[in-house]
Amino acid sequence: MIKIIKGDKKGKEEYLNLLKSRRTEVDSEVVKTVSNMLSDIRENGDSSLIGYTNKFDSEELNAGNILVTKSEIEAAYNKVDKKFLEAIKKAKLNIEKFHEKQKHNSFVIADEAGKIMGQRYIPLKRVGVYVPGGTAAYPSSVLMNIIPAKIAGVDEVVMVTPVRESLDINPNVLVAADIAGADKIYKIGGAQAIGALAYGTETIPKVDKIVGPGNIYVATAKKLVYGEVDIDMIAGPSEILVVSDDSANPKFVAADLMSQAEHDKMASAALVTTSIEIANKVNEEIEIQIKDLKRRSIIEESLKNNGIIIVVDSVNDAIDIGNDIAPEHLELCIKDPFSYLPCVRNAGSVFLGHYSPEPLGDYFGGPNHVLPTNGTARFYSPLSVDDFVKKSSYIYYSEEELLKAADSIMTIAEKEGLTAHRNSIAVRKN
């Protein structure tokens, strides 16, 4: 059962405080451990990288077998279910179609003779994609991280993922990486993999940006190497906020809340509804549906500690609460969701109507599922093609046009006390 509260000021603050309580600082010992590992990788390259991998993952790994071969990828295709293969290919097409629309064109302004200026969009040269292994092997994340990079025009996408003791990688992940277009795949994981991507080793090339989810050690490593390379984001626990009126189907809402609660015990699932009847029926449906779910214990703890149902007077009140929370996923299970879409200011991704559940976005729909968490949707965006390009501006003035502007430039330089700046213009004027 999820706790039901009123959507007044006190109730809203109660839930916001609950969300804030999940934002814990990383343990200092974790930071120290990761920092030492990164220093080792930076100084010793492959020897440290392989040493850590032998210690944590497989003693069989060495510089000669660290790169996934074509034959290993071919073998993975023989191990995956044909239905899965077909589904992944369909998902790829949807994701490509959406992200193609995000591409920008460079521009040039040449309105006046003697003046030319513009902006160029330049793809990053090399990007590293981290993919978790073990029980947290998500082929969908492989697609979501690699496809936008390829559409952006990144020269080389390097994927890293932890190897199992037998030196193999989850075949579903390998196949997804091949379909998405990974250029190289290495059998390394953990903080050591982040260090290798950030600094480069004899075997692993240095990248410009690192994307992809991971455990606390991976997340800490990404945070520590930021500045040496760019990163996508530091992701927190998963979140869903469902806004509903009396048109919502309690079965659907209950199922959607649990779809996020099953991620982990710190995941947050909330319903903001105008109907106390819907609120009660959703709780009843959770009790019914949870009995058959594999991760029941995780869902129960997540809903108990981080779940809530807030009853409000209107849909506008519900969306106001959503804008304050800035959830990772926002579902509008209401009569006319498109009319309320302009009111949504803060959300990672919005799901409209009764037949657009959050897992549609996770796996298949097209928009990226790498989304801002912990309220950062107030100022941060989903992963996109924009994350894999940089912009460079340029400017050209003829002698005549520069001389026209010379006095204005020198005046500003003088006010800032930068005489060498003034002189750079003056020597061309005299």
From TrEMBL:
Pathway: Amino-acid biosynthesis; L-histidine biosynthesis; L-histidine from 5-phospho-alpha-D-ribose 1-diphosphate: step 9/9. One of its GO terms (molecular function) is histidinol dehydrogenase activity. Binds 1 zinc ion per subunit. Substrate binds at S238, Q260, H263, H329, D362, E416, H421. Zn(2+) binds at Q260, H263, D362, H421. The keyword NAD applies. It catalyses: L-histidinol + 2 NAD(+) + H2O = L-histidine + 2 NADH + 3 H(+). It is an enzyme of class 1 (oxidoreductase). Its EC number is 1.1.1.23. The active site is at E328, H329. Keywords: Amino-acid biosynthesis, Histidine biosynthesis, Metal-binding, NAD, Oxidoreductase, Zinc. NAD(+) binds at Y130, Q192, N215. The keyword Amino-acid biosynthesis applies. Its cofactor is Zn(2+). CDD domains: Histidinol_dh. Belongs to the histidinol dehydrogenase family. Catalyzes the sequential NAD-dependent oxidations of L-histidinol to L-histidinaldehyde and then to L-histidine. This is Histidinol dehydrogenase. It comes from Clostridium algifaecis.
